Amino acid sequence: MATIIRNGFSLVRKSIFPSSARAIATTKQLNIKEIREQKDGSKLVIEGVTLPSPRAELLVRAEKLTPSAIASEESDVTKPCYLCALELDVKHTDVLILSQFVRSDGCMLPRRVTGLCRRQQKKIGKMVSMAQKAGLMINLTPAYCKKDPRKRKDYKKFNTYFDEKTIFMKRIPDQNDRFKR
Amino acid sequence: MSACKRVQQWATFARTWHIFDCKWQDPYQSAGVIKKYLMGMHKPIYHPLNDCGDVVVCINSREIALRGEDWRRRAYFHHTGYPGGASWTLAWELHNKDPTMIIRKAVYRAMQGNLQRRHTMERLFIYPGEDIPEDVLQNVTNQIRQLRLVPTRLDHIPEEEVKNYPKVMDYPEDYILK
Ligand SMILES: [Zn+2]
């Protein structure tokens, strides 16, 4: 009985919203890279411009790097995403790599944009927040943020480093646990 | 004793002055290294009863880095001796009061607990900043290697280098730049 009701509900919902709420649009979805705003007098012109990606030439991919590696890779298992295939050992201090996965306000991009696998998305996201807490990407922060890490409050103003091993730890061991019986 | 041997004797038992830059260093990890130089354990002539320890000058102790949440989780205990005289100070509060105290306590704890360490600690100089007295600096002849790399901030890297750095991630077709 419950399944019939649930199926009925989902049928009704699907007839109203075809796939998801995002898909409702009166015009064709615009493929835009940059939104430009111009102001001449009292007129405000907002236009979406499709631009070639500035990163296309500098892009590093594992299949381009070594042709011999790809042959061995095909015999083995294929890697779930491009970052796994590169086999980089990224640390939270590698701000030049981490800043590529970040919006201009320092927020981590979602997985549908980055195209990473689940594990790498989690890992990169945690390392981005580590770098932000350590004050290493201070220029990629919201406008209201204090741009000097030393002007932060309380314990946040002192230097902190992080251990990448703690990213996938179930529970970070507490120092006080040593004294428990 | 010949003149040559006499100089060798001086060189063996002379105190060397080492300098250690605490910038972005973990005090608890670097305490193990500083302790070695303070007690003279890096020398082949080391013996606990042999007075062969060196002098270590720590600079930039205000810039030490603690791991993870240690600044707000680590507490320092003190008891005045009177009833109700116990107090717990968090690491960041202690560092606000005295920026040299954390590294001094870390080195003190790293050494074995006998009375000799009070005298060994007298050979440790800690300065919160970079400017140290001239008479201390002119004795220094050796630098202790840092344990951790000092990280570079993104805004300190020139913009041209950030732009031309090899990219790993590319935006999808329909991404709107923000
Ligand atoms: Zn992956």
UniProtKB/TrEMBL annotation, chain A:
Pfam families per record: Ribosomal_S18 (PF01084)
Keywords assigned: Ribonucleoprotein, Ribosomal protein
InterPro entries, per the entry: Ribosomal_bS18, Ribosomal_bS18_sf
Highest taxon listed in the record's lineage: Eukaryota
SUPFAM superfamilies, sorted: Ribosomal protein S18
Protein name (Swiss-Prot/TrEMBL): 28S ribosomal protein S18a, mitochondrial
Organism in which the protein naturally occurs: Chilo suppressalis (Asiatic rice borer moth)
The organism's taxonomic lineage, starting at the top: Eukaryota, Metazoa, Ecdysozoa, Arthropoda, Hexapoda
From TrEMBL, chain B:
Taxonomic superkingdom: Eukaryota
Keywords, comma-separated and alphabetical: Ribonucleoprotein, Ribosomal protein
Keyword DNA repair set for record: no
InterPro entries noted in UniProt: Ribosomal_uL13, Ribosomal_uL13_bac-type, Ribosomal_uL13_sf
CDD domains from the UniProt entry: Ribosomal_L13
Gene3D superfamilies associated with the record: Ribosomal protein L13 (3.90.1180.10)
This protein's record includes keyword ATP-binding: no
Similarity field: Belongs to the universal ribosomal protein uL13 family.
Protein name, as recorded: 39S ribosomal protein L13, mitochondrial
Species of provenance: Chilo suppressalis
